[in-house]
Amino acid sequence: MKTFARHHRRLLLASLAFLFIGATQAVPAQEKYPVRPVRFVVPFAAGGVADTTARVVADKLSEKLGQRFYVENQPGAGGITAARNAISAPADGYTVTMLTNGTAVSVSLFEKLPFDPVKDFTPVSSLGFFDFAFVTSASSGFKTLGDFVAAAKAKPGALNVGTINVGSTQNLSAELFKTSANVDFTLVPFRGNHDAEVALLQGNVSLVIDSYSVLQGNIVDGKLRALASSGATRSESTPDLATVKESGVADYDVVSWNAMFARTGTPPDVIKTLNSALQEILGDAEVRKKLLAFGVEARAGTPEAIGERLKSDIDKWRAVIEKAHIPKQ
């Protein structure tokens, strides 16, 4: 009887061992991300600062992680088209998207966004930061931004300031400048950067607020004069250009940014892999130099840091929009 019991136990243990081996063989080893191409959805047309940043980053990620990262341009008001595209994809890290300072603006600018950038996306890392330049015609009498402020105070509403469309970060930067400097001027919105620049060259506006890289050609040629940059400290791309704060407008600080986000629910190890790669890529001297030529300060950070920046900028631009009485779109 004892011999039968021992034999029965041996058969049972052998069966369990066989089942265990079979079960472990049936479960494949977890794939190391990425194992196929990754789509980077960008809410702007090709050729601009954001697109250039995305393409430099995508190329370097492809080299570092061994799979192709490709940029897919999905321009549209408020980044709605790009965001919809990104959140409709699986939360597996094979579709990432760019959120920007403009995303923070859109939350308060639109009556109802079909997505919530804070809840529907999880941050990966910042990519780059850039200031706006306050630029006048070289033939104008304004040698400093202080000269412009003095003239605006002497004749309230008489001076014209050009930016791209109402609700853009440039446009809201001008609105913030109005209140921060306590001046009154007429804000003239244009459909595109080129239209605003032409108006400045022709003397139809006294000042334009836009990315330095957009206006750089005519600044270098001596047709335009940069008066100030919008950040709290001088930009690496324009170290000789005084800030608005240095020009006498206290507490003025506008720095635009772009960052990589993934759909909420993306595995933490994927976020970690991407963040680690971006930290190395954006710390590389060659990459930093390449982006600085476009006025962008390459800078990676923790997911938490850019997530908090998104939230704080939503609050900041909500206050500007409400104070300027800009109607919701």
UniProtKB/TrEMBL annotation:
Q: Which Gene3D superfamilies match?
A: Bordetella uptake gene, domain 1, Periplasmic binding protein-like II
Matches recorded under InterPro entries:
BUG (IPR005064), Bug_dom1 (IPR042100)
Please state the span of the N-terminal signal peptide per the UniProt entry.
Answer: 1-26
Alphabetically sorted, this entry's keywords are: Receptor, Signal
Q: Does the keyword Signal apply?
A: yes
Q: Name one Pfam family in it.
A: TctC
Q: Which domain of life is it from?
A: Bacteria
Q: Which family does it belong to?
A: Belongs to the UPF0065 (bug) family.
What protein am I looking at?
Tripartite-type tricarboxylate transporter, receptor component TctC
The record lists the organism as Bradyrhizobium erythrophlei
Q: What is the lineage of its organism?
A: Bacteria, Pseudomonadati, Pseudomonadota, Alphaproteobacteria, Hyphomicrobiales
